[in-house]
Protein: NirD/YgiW/YdeI family stress tolerance protein
Organism: Desulfovibrio desulfuricans
Amino acid sequence: MRYLLIMLVSLMLAAPVYAAGTTDATAAPAAHKTKHVTKAAPVDTVAKALAAANKTPVSVTGTIVEPMQGKKNGYIFDDGTGRMTVVLGKKAAAAAHLEAQSKVHLTGVMVVKAGKEGVMAVRKAEMQQ
């Protein structure tokens, strides 16, 4: 009787392990978080950037017109096609010391909120000669 009980218990313990190893066609795939990656070519002018959607990559060259009042790392940027607000990230601000009339190349993404004009979030700022 003892041997029969051992066989029964081992069968009961093995059944869930076997069932977990099989795949069911109706089972939902495991949900995982992925980062949204935009594979579009970067926008290269301010005029195009202001018309672009949220999270559009932007790479522009132009001049810093003036610092924004009330924003520590905010500037007005002009490239000849228009003006827009740019905000430097911590790493970009630490790497580049921008002043009025500085010629720069900025790389980042557009941040567009409903009812407001787009702002460029700068990830990399390079001084130009």
Q: What stands out?
A: The domain at 46-127 is CATH 2.40.50.200 (OB fold (Dihydrolipoamide Acetyltransferase, E2P)). Residues 2-21 form the longest helix (20 residues). The two ends are 91 Å apart (CA to CA). The chain has a mean pLDDT of 84.
